[in-house]
């Protein structure tokens, strides 16, 4: 049963991921390069994860955290890029980009220092949790900019909403997993479901987003 659910999740995830990539290839990838990079990285990571099912547990764990670091960095870049775009059309003033990046680096460094333990997986889980919380806060800042933007940027609102949904699900899922082993399936289902919903919202946003105009040579 567990294996059937795992393969079912991979199928649905790959399908939604390919929908997002196909929508981006219509031209939106030029406007949202970090969304495109994240979608490609997520596709590759899922395929590699499937291929490593027969590999030793240590190999799977090593790949998992390399994959998580890459995806988290891309998500961070994605949020900063979204904030930059929203700020161009908003009357609100925000903290400069370099301060947002520095704050993210400090949060990662402090979480490493606070959660020093011989259990590597536990330490990395806490670092990922703190970073996701910071990204969720940045997403709220992004929403504040989008609500005051004129004209409203509907595609970016949907992309921000899908991202916020994924981050909220990841934070709540990680908390449930740490709270009790009995809540393992609840936390996992929450993370997976919100991830799927986030990808679906991205696809809806990108398939209706106007392609950027190209200047003729």
Please give a structural write-up.
This protein is mainly alpha-helical and 217 residues long. The protein has one domain. It is 78% helix and 0% strand. It is built from seven helices and no strands. Helix 3 runs parallel beside helix 5. The termini are far apart.
Number of helices: 7
Helix content: over 70%
Total E-strand runs: 0
> Could you give a short account of the major beta sheet?
none
Return Rg in Å: 18 Å
- H/E element order: HHHHHHH
Bulk shape = globular
The end-to-end distance, rounded to whole angstroms, is 57 Å
Describe the secondary structure blueprint for this structure:
Elements: H1 2-24, H2 33-51, H3 57-87, H4 97-114, H5 120-147, H6 154-179, H7 184-208
Compact description:
About 80% of the residues lie in helices and about 0% in strands. It is built from seven helices and no strands.
Features:
7 helices, 217 residues, mainly alpha
